[in-house]
Amino acid sequence: MPKNFLWGGATAANQSEGGxxxxxxxxxIVDVLPHGQERLRVMLGELDYRDLPDDSYYPAREAxxxxxxxxxxxALFAQMGFxxxxxxxxxSRIFPxxxxxxxxxxxxxxxxxxxxxxxxxxxxxxxxxxxxxxxxNLIDKxxxxxxxxxxxxxxxxxxxxxxxxxxxxxxxxxxxxxxxxMHLPFMGAGLRFEEGENVLESKYQAAHYELVASARATxxxxxxxxxxxxxxxxxxxxxxxxxxxPQDVWQALQMDRENYFFxxxxxxxxxxxxxxxxxxxxxxxxDIREEDLQVLKEHTVDFISLSYYNxxxxxxxxxxxxxxxxxxxxxxxxYLEVSEWGWPIDPLGFRxxxxxxxxxxxxPLFVVENGLGARDELVxxxxxxxxxxxxxxxxxxxxxxxxxxxGVDILGYTAWGCIDLISATTGEMSKRYGMxxxxxADDGSGSLKRIPKKSFYWYxxxxxKNSHI
Length: 469
Fold this sequence. Notes:
By secondary structure, this protein is of the alpha/beta class. The chain has helices at residues 13-17, 39-43, 66-80, 91-94, 105-120, 136-142, 149-164, 185-189, 199-224, 246-268, 273-282, 290-298, 347-361, 386-404, 454-465; strands at residues 6-10, 84-88, 124-128, 171-173, 229-236, 239-241, 303-308, 312-314, 365-369, 410-416, 436-438, 450-452. 40% of the residues lie in helices and 12% in strands. It is globular. The active site is at residue 369. Belongs to the glycosyl hydrolase 1 family.
């Protein structure tokens, strides 16, 4: 492996940070995502969070209190030998309402200390600017990304980050899993929908404004520091046709395009013809201006980052048992085992996905999420998570083969949930991804004590060896 390969781990403020009222932070999307059966409806934008019962429990308001434990957590990451740590900054900790002219200095000071702590251990900060995150005020007052004004609010936020950390941070990701806007619109982009609204058109309008914001952020970043590396990010996973039946193959291609749509624009600098034809057939009347198209063309990203948890499978007749796959619809693939949550386990699919992305874009890739959600059992103060080790080993081996045998250019690998955190989709703590156990239950009880798992030591040895599994 290259000596400068960025081994590490990944989290996000909305799932780990907590401290929701500390350092003058304002309320954000994650603070109103409840635990329980109504969570999905809120994430979909079908249920207004203001209509939730008063006794609703919001697990991410404390999460694992990464806010208060970051020095301890970063020290543990250093013990594992991390070369990089991908995390996100809470927008409402910098601009509590999103409308302020000047940033919240207490919030900035927190992240200055946070990044200083990473650099103390020679851990490269990988910063996600917006990870399923936004001040609630921008949703309630402006309608979120359905409003063009959000571009300016986002750029003001970006400018503060770029200028504050121009000498400490090299790698930036503009939006986490930008394609999730289409699947969980409120969680992904703060979108809510009114009765009778053309939901699909509204999603694509919001998508356009996010794409313009990303391109303008890339432009701004390179002006402030030409050495900055700006990346986009998608929730990746190639789609298999269920059979060689042409209709299945066509359906798989269509679903892949839906996934690639955002990155086609961010990496290539223009809307692909298939998207323009789709807009035309749907009769969309989108606010896409000539100056928007120019900035998209001139300010493409430097690298493609991705999450990968599983591949997907599709059959054109819609038949067959449904298979879990994050929040994406998928037919059950009879050739794959699944996790406790029904997600297919497919290391070769990871290699296929990496090859597909590199062939398509010819830009460096950065794997910023990959991991296994599972229930861990604490026995005599230890967690023997061989199932997680097996998952990670299989996927890392597939990544190494993509690099060594296929020539795919990959900058680094940051395992998702290097420390246990709140599941984005379910709001559970019991769906654990980490190599560090956090003593907290789904109901919020627990000491928050950190305990390294067996996978902690396995990953430490892998990073030290910097070679094959």
